[in-house]
Amino acid sequence: MSTLSIGSALQSINNPFAMPVRFDFSADVGSGEQVLAYAVAMSGFMLNYDTGSDYWAEPVGRAAVNLVPNLVGNVLQVDGNVVLTDFNDDSARSTPGDNSPVSGAQITAIALIDSSDDGGFVLGNACGLPSGQNSAPITVAGNTDNQVFVAGFSVEGQNGSTGSIAGFSVGSSVGEPIQQAVTVTGTVNLAEMSTTGAVDVGLLSVPAGGNQTFGVQPAAITWGAPNGGNGMLGSLSATFQVPAGKSIVATALLLESVNIVYEDTAEIQQVSALQTGGLQVNGSTVTGQFRLNMYNPDFGARTYISSTSTASIYVIAQFG
Q1: How many domains does the chain contain in total?
Q2: How far apart are CA 48 and CA 12, in angstroms?
Q3: What is the pTM of this model?
Q4: pLDDT tens digit string along 31-52?
Q5: 174-182: which pairs have CB atoms within 8 A and are 24 or more residues apart?
Q6: Domain range holding 185?
């Protein structure tokens, strides 16, 4: 039987730009089995300016998080390319300082493990899709459940322009199967700014029914009120149908979409959508917290996230 093995890790806060995140799936690979396919997902991100001026906030020129995986045997190493720049010497913070967090990504890795590729699963990433444009058709089995997630993004002002923004959004979607093929789409946008962008989209296509090794469920999220520079905290939960005799042994988040709305059109210090702490398992239910944030802390120009901000998040759980 095909199984999925999952892992989730935050890029090292000491060296987030250069330190690969390592996922070792060896413990889940049985005799005669191998990792047949894999995908990476951006389950959260933090983009925070390190400015060279007297101000914390700056205009936005380009923002990006791209994950670069490399599988060697049963070990998947993922490098993270994290960018925030105003094209004028200010960039994403890469080292701690001034009580300001470093930039980075929360990475989820998914591996499909089996002895032969005959289970009808499809797992992988479509990278660099122009924002709003469909991928080429992807062949899937008949009667499948198709889950997509954001695996990375890059967005910048047209013709190298910079400016104030009114929000940030990134999302993924999948079309209905046509002749046993689907297309996936990603969108990314900086509100009130003319931009070009691309999105990396992950796809997990699973034959409907019968699988006993994992589950994917949408998270129900209750958002609290915005709290200035602390952003907006959401409490999430998802409940699974765990097979008899098994339990949840690993969990991770999959971002389907994020829509952060600013209170005004302004410069930014930080934009983030990030898991807060670990996920907790209580029987068949997984709970956790997730924070959305965007703000400008500069005196006389303070702008914060709006309560209309939201995110669509899935929880993936491995049973064992």
Answers
A1: 1
A2: 15
A3: 0.95
A4: 999 999 999 999 999 999 999 8
A5: 174/146, 174/147, 174/148, 174/203, 175/134, 177/140, 177/142, 177/144, 177/146, 178/137, 180/139, 180/140, 180/141, 180/142, 181/137, 181/138, 181/139, 181/140, 182/137, 182/138, 182/140, 182/146
A6: 3-319
Contacts of 256 (CB under 8 A, 6+ apart): 148, 149, 150, 171, 172, 312, 313, 314
Dihedral sign of CA atoms 189, 190, 191, 192 in order:
negative
Picking from 13-22, 174-183, 311-320, which range would have the lowest pLDDT averaged per residue? 13-22
Band (316; pLDDT cuts 50, 70, 90): very high
DSSP-derived letter for residue 51 is -
| Long-range own/partner contacts, residues 275-284 (CB < 8 A, 24 or more apart) | 275/43, 275/44, 275/106, 276/233, 279/251, 279/252, 279/253, 279/315, 281/247, 281/248, 281/251, 281/317, 283/242, 284/239, 284/240, 284/241, 284/242, 284/248
Please give the Cα distance from 87 to 104 (Å, whole number).
19
Mean pLDDT of the residues in the chain:
94
Contacts 24+ apart (CB under 8 A), 29-32: 29/5, 29/74, 29/113, 30/113, 32/115
- 14-23 burial: b if 16+ Cβ within 10 Å, else e: eebbeebbeb
Element (H, E) at 217: strand 214-218
Cα distance between residue 53 and residue 91, in whole Å: 12
